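tool_call: predict_structure(chain=1)
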Amino acid sequence: MVGLNMAGPARDRVMKLMQDKDKIENEIRDQTAILETNNVGMHDSLVDSEGYPRNDIDVYKVRHARHRIICLQNDHKNIMKLIERGLAEVHKELLCSNGEGPSVNAAATSNGYTNGASAGDTVPRPVAEDDQAFAIIGFVTAGSPADLAGLQERDEVLQFGSVNYHNFEDMSQINTIVSHSVGQQVNVKVKREQNVINISVVPRPWQQPGLLGCHIQRIS
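tool_result:
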């Protein structure tokens, strides 16, 4: 990650924020595990056909877990914004330590983060000739796992987990990766404008149906 191997106040702040981010993500996984243990998601009914609390699940724990997940997702989104700003400061410190001023490339890198790249990203790089997209991100729902990770509408997908342009056959491959990676990071490489950005997204139940909260469609 840019500049995180150098000392400096901005670097220290970002490292602390990243530790807090990891704690939030770990608790989200813990709370998601409670839902999985009870075989429910964020929207399954907690009452039976007669309107009584279901006796096959721990209703109290499920309600608490759902509430915590919503709160944690909001906390995660806020801390990601702080990390993005911190990374821009780290990059600025790195340029200053090298005796360099802001440049066109530096501005492009900073824009990669302010456009929503997650803290786990490597530095955005220019698009190369062999960067071929096989899918494109459609709508991204605010507050969804995809949104929190930094995916944006019109991002062109170069790689999703183990799937890339060369081995992509159909969208079922993406669905399989998502369904088998609940609570785990999936590395996604996207082309955004003239930059290539690496993003880590964690599929998980949230307030709405689905595990990502975005629409991905193949490029015809």
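agent: The chain is about 40% helix and 15% strand. Proceeding to next step.
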